[in-house]
Amino acid sequence: MHKRVLLPIAGVPVLSIFCMASSSAQTAPVPANDPPSAPVPAAPVPTDTKSPVPAYPPYQQQQTPGTTVPPATPAGPPVVAPAQPTPESPVQAYVPYGVPDEDRRKSHDGSPYIPVDSWVYPAMDRLYSLGFADTMFLGMRPYTRQSLAHILAETHDDVADSDDDNAKEILAAVEHYLQDEPMDGITPRGTVYGTETAYTRLLGISGQTLNDSYHLGQTIVNDYGRPYQPGFNAIAGFSELAEQGRFSFYFRGEYQHAPGAAGYSQTLSAALSQGGDPANPFQYVAGDQIVFSGYNLHQATIPTGPIAAANPFRIEEATLSFHLLGHEISGGKSDAWLGPAFGSSMAWSNNAEDIYSFRINRVEPLHIPLFSSLFGPVRYDFFYGSLKGHSQPNSPYVHSESISVRPTVNSEIAVQRTVIFGGEGHEPVTFHTFARSFFSLQDTENNPAAKGSAQDPGARFSDFSFSWRLPFVRKYATLVLDSICHDDVSPISAPRRAAYRTGVYLSQIPGARKFDFRVEAVTTDPGVSRSVGGQFQYFETIERQGYTNKGFLMGDWIGREAKGGQAWLTYHLSGDEWVQLEYRNTKQPKDFIPGGTTQNQFKVSVVKRIDRDFELNAWYQYEKWKAPIYLPGAQNDSVGTVQLTWLPKLKKTSGL
């Protein structure tokens, strides 16, 4: 893995020098003080080859006797000035795929990330699957405002020249959203600052919900780990941004309210934590293998009751960034969604609260000579931070490395690895333990003794994903696959031990082009054995609260040793408005959770603009679920939500 990560990084300075040298050689300026040379009339075309045209123009004065007439210099082909583009005759030029258009990459401005819960991402997903936005990396989010502006600049003419009204509506909506970012990459941007959004969300829940992604399941998923309980819930927040030159700043914070709840009983909590069965202690012995006593009576991964009402003010995102050679170097709290699927990401999603981290993200596609001629443009992302809500061991650290290539205009391939290591009571976090976890590529399946020793490389989760706009129907169908494995080099080397999320996206339906349809299936229950008691995917024998931050899974909401799927049918009112129907199913086996669990959800949502400055996002969800270990019989709940977001115009100073 480390070799793949270091290769693109090593190519950055070489590519930069090459591009700067090429640019200066091709656009050498003419000195301003040199007068233009006088025009030279063309010589007459001879009509008789026996009477050649004199070597000098007819109007030239006779030469003084004794002087020598210099030989004539053949005139080169006439220089024709490039035609100016017009609406009737737009500029069209062919650029081989994988070779960047340098005229669109002259901006060195930094810009903040666009939150992954923004309407922009489903809109751009559809634009890509309609056959446009070829420079977009589907499985590496978030995008910065500038990088998204460059994607739009590359695809603008293709969309404008097409007869696809859906694509034109999306392009217009996203360009309006980025109206303060220069699309050509050349025009000075100046300073952009101000309030980006102010929003409030009112959420009402009737019936008992599930709020335990590490065991029984979640009723509300991909919501940054926000608290919710039956009754009245609410959030009120705002976001601010500032952009100046290479620097950018982003902040999003919100007040959150959730009522109190009964939570799990002590008996159920003990069974999930240390193993056993509330009804028959001799039958069920899996659990998380964490002693349920003392400090571990209140674990973030187990909602033990009684649960007090929540009223925090939480910083959702806060980053200070510097842009350098196509990289956004930042510190703070930022989103990550590392996968091409829509319903979730195996490696990293917004199901849990963001972590504080140091991050180096290649936000612009990188062209590496020779390498990119085979594998296409490259992007990579690295971040390092700490996890919260862990008690065995306490406060471990985590780092993530991902690299993605686009070998063809219709395909993208990515590899990623997350490592959780260190923590109080385990190996201390030092440069050596970090290097061991970063460079370790050896399986530990055959050497379990290393896990409890000083040679422990950490809990390693490796991901492989790809997306493919299918041949002959590239403007209609996109196939996605996301897979993850634990303590194996890659899902490719151990496919039977991996977890998968696969799906197909139909970006338009023939005869009803305002509709799109998407379906995805997911499993974290590998077929290597009948049962692993939940102690495999997203679990770790040392880091026993596994792949979580503050109690919520950072990857796919499906959970441990589970199967399920999602389906969406969407009618698009415009480029940034839609009505959507969704179905979601989850099932966990009884040899992981006694009695098993089952969830079935039906959801309808609406995103609508009220003028251009207000967004209405409303949804209603009905859920039926069973979890006999928690409550007997079938349960149901209903969730109704209305969110109103104000999108004021940002302030801007001239960059000239």
The CATH superfamily name of the largest domain is Capsule assembly protein Wzi
Total count of helical runs of at least 4 residues = 7
Radius of gyration: 30 Å
Helix content: 10-25%
Rough shape? Answer: globular
Low-confidence stretches: 1-69, 75-96
Q: Give the CATH architecture of the largest domain.
A: Beta Barrel
Total discrete domains: 2
Query: What's the β-strand tally?
Result: 23
User: How much beta, percentage-wise?
Assistant: 25-35%
Q: Return the CATH topology of the largest domain.
A: Porin
Write the layout of secondary structure elements.
Elements lengths: L1 H25 L93 H10 L15 H17 L3 H13 L13 E16 L4 E2 L4 E2 L12 E14 L2 E11 L8 H9 L38 E12 L2 E7 L22 E7 L8 H5 L2 E9 L10 E12 L2 E11 L9 H9 L19 E11 L7 E10 L12 E8 L8 E9 L24 E2 L2 E2 L9 E12 L2 E12 L8 E14 L3 E14 L3 E16 L4 E2 L4
Antiparallel strand pairs: 1-4, 1-22, 1-23, 2-3, 4-5, 5-6, 6-7, 7-8, 8-9, 9-10, 10-11, 11-12, 12-13, 13-14, 14-15, 15-18, 16-17, 18-19, 19-20, 20-21, 21-22
Provide a short characterization of the protein structure:
With 656 residues, this protein is α+β, with helices and mostly antiparallel strands. The protein has helices at 2-26, 120-129, 145-161, 165-177, 266-274, 371-375, 431-439; strands at residues 191-206, 211-212, 217-218, 231-244, 247-257, 313-324, 327-333, 356-362, 378-386, 397-408, 411-421, 459-469, 477-486, 499-506, 515-523, 548-549, 552-553, 563-574, 577-588, 597-610, 614-627, 631-646, 651-652.
